Amino acid sequence: MLRACLHTNEFSSGEVKLWRTYSMLTDLESVCRSLKGKLGMRPIYHKRDARSDGHLIITVLA
């Protein structure tokens, strides 16, 4: 049996809500990774926040 341990400083949410949030985050990361692969995008590293924001917007629009 696989067991996972999550650490958080969010105490107002219940265990079920935290687990669903974590699952949703992993699903979204998987979708983004898949889309980047299908679009043939390579990792691009920016040194300025404005450039990374612009790259993100263009990626989403594509």
Descriptive overview:
The chain has 62 residues and is mostly helical. The protein has two helices and no strands. It has one domain. The longest helix has 25 residues, at 15-39. The protein starts with 14 loop residues before the first helix and ends with a helix. 0% of the residues are buried.
Tags for this entry?
single chain, 62 residues, mainly alpha, 2 helices, 61% helix, 0% strand
Quick rundown:
The protein is 61% helix and 0% strand.
Largest sheet: none
**SSE ordering:** HH
| Gyration radius, in Å | 16 Å
What is the number of E strands? Answer: 0
Structural class of the secondary structure composition? mainly alpha
Compute the number of structural domains.
1
Poorly predicted ranges: none
Shape descriptor = elongated
User: What's the mean pLDDT score?
Assistant: 75
SSE layout:
Blueprint: H1 15-39, H2 49-61
